Amino acid sequence: MFDFFVEQILGMQWLNDLVWYVLINYFHADQNSNWWSSAHFFFYDTIKITILLVTLIYLISYIQSYFPPEKTKRILTHFDGFTGNIIAALLGTVTPFCSCSSVPIFIGFIRAGLPVGMTFSFLISSPMVDVASMLMLMSFFGPEFAIFYTVVGVILAVVGGKVLSIMKVERYLKKYDGAIRDFYAESEYFNQRQRLNYALNDTKIIVRKVFPYVLLGVLIGAVIHNWIPQEFILSILGNNNPFAVILATIIGIPIYADIFGTLPIAEALYLVGVPAGTILALMMAITALSLPSLIMLSQVLQRKLLFLFISIVSIGIIFVGYVFNFVF
């Protein structure tokens, strides 16, 4: 039953077969053609991600309605030390899906006087790890990859926040008096109808925001999978290059996308044989260290702390990537 759930419900193997059936029977597609393989990749992944995106975001947005920023702050004030970092990282898994949504909440936590280490654990975890991303990863790469990604993402958030806490970086914070986005602070007191409407509204906003990146990711994935020679990709990101994980991390930082936009690219790299840890490093760098979020963080972090944050997270991502390549 679990295999059926992963392959047919999350993986949508039926959709893969259906897209080929339509292309072959109605458009006389040739499965050995790069053009038709690209068309199949595009339609299959676009439809699949859209279905998962709408369904999972609706469900997770409903859960998020129970954890508005004000309630999250109240929860975090009851913890400190290493336990606080763990709770902050776990709370990050039930909050917004992208780094540019997480940064305003992070700024709010800083302004509220929460311990810096806990706020950084939240900041690292929030865009990188959540239930929706775990299920999406499971649908593309299987349960082992998804669970490992989620676990190491939370560990990276906890350790990164704890290291920054030990280094006493509070003196490198800037005073920020600008406005920050209102994240439905009143949702804590919603009734069930309001929560369902909140989830529907949030789904519309998020899907509208991320869908262009999904389409871009699918197009890039189709090109990688069908047009760039496998030998060329593996010469750069394959096992024979000892610096592949480092290179993937560096490539990922300037890119802005969330987990949904990176999945088609990751899938294409996986299909041509790029090691799982290298793909993991790319995905984590894109989601945790995107350039727009770093620009937003520069408003509240002095340059030294910003570079320290980037360095610690990058080192953690690279370490995890090499470990993952070794394990898988």
UniProtKB/TrEMBL annotation:
<keyword id="KW-1133">Transmembrane helix</keyword>
<feature type="transmembrane region" description="Helical">
    <location>
        <begin position="269"/>
        <end position="293"/>
    </location>
</feature>
<feature type="transmembrane region" description="Helical">
    <location>
        <begin position="240"/>
        <end position="257"/>
    </location>
</feature>
<feature type="transmembrane region" description="Helical">
    <location>
        <begin position="210"/>
        <end position="228"/>
    </location>
</feature>
<feature type="transmembrane region" description="Helical">
    <location>
        <begin position="12"/>
        <end position="29"/>
    </location>
</feature>
<feature type="transmembrane region" description="Helical">
    <location>
        <begin position="305"/>
        <end position="327"/>
    </location>
</feature>
<keyword id="KW-0472">Membrane</keyword>
<dbReference type="InterPro" id="IPR053166">
    <property type="entry name" value="UPF0718_permease"/>
</dbReference>
<keyword id="KW-1003">Cell membrane</keyword>
<comment type="similarity">
    <text>Belongs to the UPF0718 family.</text>
</comment>
<protein>
    <recommendedName>
        <fullName>Permease</fullName>
    </recommendedName>
</protein>
<dbReference type="InterPro" id="IPR005524">
    <property type="entry name" value="DUF318"/>
</dbReference>
<feature type="transmembrane region" description="Helical">
    <location>
        <begin position="41"/>
        <end position="66"/>
    </location>
</feature>
<keyword id="KW-0812">Transmembrane</keyword>
<dbReference type="Pfam" id="PF03773">
    <property type="entry name" value="ArsP_1"/>
</dbReference>
<feature type="transmembrane region" description="Helical">
    <location>
        <begin position="86"/>
        <end position="110"/>
    </location>
</feature>
<feature type="transmembrane region" description="Helical">
    <location>
        <begin position="147"/>
        <end position="165"/>
    </location>
</feature>
